[in-house]
C-alpha cells in the first residue's frame, strides 16, 4: 500500500508541475520576461509558499497540539466506517455554509461578472452543429430567448447551472472528503475566471459544471451505501446505479470519463468481500450505460447509408467531444489578471504534496482524486483546451488544495492505527479474521448456529473436587481402644 501511495503522489506532483509551469510560462510571456525569469518565478512562488506559509503554520499546529482524528480499529465496523466520511450525515452547519456560499456566488455573478461578450458568442454558438457540441445547452438557451432578452437568457441559464453545480459539488465532496475540501473547491468556483467570466458567455461550461457536480454526488452517495451494506442486494444496487450514470456520462463527453477513476478508486478501498461484488456490479453497469447511449445515438442521430458507417460517425464524434473547435469569436482570450488568479489553486495543491507523508493524506481519501486529475490534464492537453474550458481541472485542484490546507493546520497523529493507512488497517482486520477462522477449523469446533449459546471468554471459578482425608500411619490392634484407665490418685480437684 505504501508503494501505491508513493506512485500516486509522484504522479500528482508531476501533474501539478506540468500545469503550474504552463501557467508561469504564459505569465512570463505576457510580461515580456526572459526564460531565466520563468525559472525564477516558478521556483520563487513555490519556495515562498513553503517557507512563509506552510512551515510556520505547521510549526504552530505542532506546538499547540492540533492533530487529526485517530480511527480506532477495535471492531470491524469501525474499521470499515473509517474508510469513508460518507458515514457522517450532513449537519445543519453544512446547510448554513452551503447557503452562504451560494449567496456569495449569486452576488458575485450579478455585480462583478463581465457583460461585454454575450451577444456575438451567442450567435456563433447557437449555429454549431453536431451531437457533442452542446445541442442540449443550445436548446435551453433558445427556449429562454422566447421569454427574455438574449443576454438575460444566457445569464439566467448559466447562473442556474452554476448554482445547482455548486450545490451538488458541496454535497458530494463533503461526503467524500470533508467540509474543508468542499469549501475550498466552492471558493475556487466562485472567484476563478474560468467560471466567473463565462456566466454571460453562451458556452456549455456552466452546464458541464452542473453535470460534473451531480455525478460526484452520485459517486459519494453510492459509495456510502455500499460501505454500509449489510446484504448482497445492498451492494449491487448502488454500484449498478452509479455505473449506469457514469457509463452514460462517459459516452456523452470524454471529459466525464475521469469520474470512472474516482468511483473505481473508492470501490478499491472497500473490504475484499464487498469490493468484488461492487466492482462486478459497477463494471457491468458502466458497459450497459455506455452501449445503451451508443445504440440510441446510432438509431436516432446516426448519419450514413449503412449501420457500420453510422457507428463510425458516432464514434468519431465521441472521440472529438473533448477537443476544442476553432471558433475565434467563441473563445475567450485570457488576460494577465486571469493567469495571476489561477496561481493560488496550484500553490495550495502543492501543500498536499508537502503533507503527503502525514497520516491524513496517506489514509486514502486524498489519493482517490489524483488519477482523475491526471487524466483530466491529459485530455485537456490533447484537446488543446483553452483556459475557460479547464473547469473540471480546477474543481479537482480545489479538492486536493483542501487536503493541503487541512494538513497544514494539523499535526501528525502519534497513536492509533492512523499511521498504517486505512488500506493497511482493513487488510489487518481481514487477516485477523482469517487467522481466527483457521484456528477454529483446526480445533474441530463447529461454528455456532443461530440461537446457540456462545462460549464464555471470561474467567470463571474452578469446579470443586471432592477429596478424602487419610492418616499418615495405621494404628495397631492393641492401640485400638478408647477407655483410658484412671487410678484414684489421678483425680483432679475442680
Write the layout of secondary structure elements.
Blueprint: H1 2-31, H2 35-63, H3 76-81, H4 92-112, H5 118-125, H6 135-144, H7 150-177, H8 179-191, H9 193-196, H10 205-227, H11 232-252, H12 258-268, H13 272-301, H14 307-319, H15 336-341, H16 343-354, H17 359-362, H18 370-382, H19 391-408, H20 422-443
Helix pairs in contact: 1-2, 1-16, 1-18, 2-16, 4-7, 4-8, 6-7, 7-8, 7-10, 8-19, 10-11, 10-12, 11-12, 11-13, 12-18, 13-14, 16-19, 18-19
Description:
It is a single chain. By secondary structure, the protein is mainly alpha-helical. It has helices at residues 2-31, 35-63, 76-81, 92-112, 118-125, 135-144, 150-177, 179-191, 193-196, 205-227, 232-252, 258-268, 272-301, 307-319, 336-341, 343-354, 359-362, 370-382, 391-408, 422-443. It is elongated and about 145 Å long.
Short précis:
This protein is mostly helical and 494 residues long.
Distance separating the two termini: 96 Å
Average of pLDDT: 76
Determine the number of helices (DSSP H or I, runs of at least 4 residues): 20
Biggest beta-sheet profile? none
Rg measurement, Å = 34 Å
Beta-strand percentage? Answer: under 5%
Q: Tell me the overall shape.
A: elongated
Total beta strands? 0
- Unreliable spans: 68-87, 117-133, 324-330, 358-364, 413-422
Helix and strand string, N-terminal first? HHHHHHHHHHHHHHHHHHHH
| SS content category | mainly alpha
- Amount of helix: 55-70%
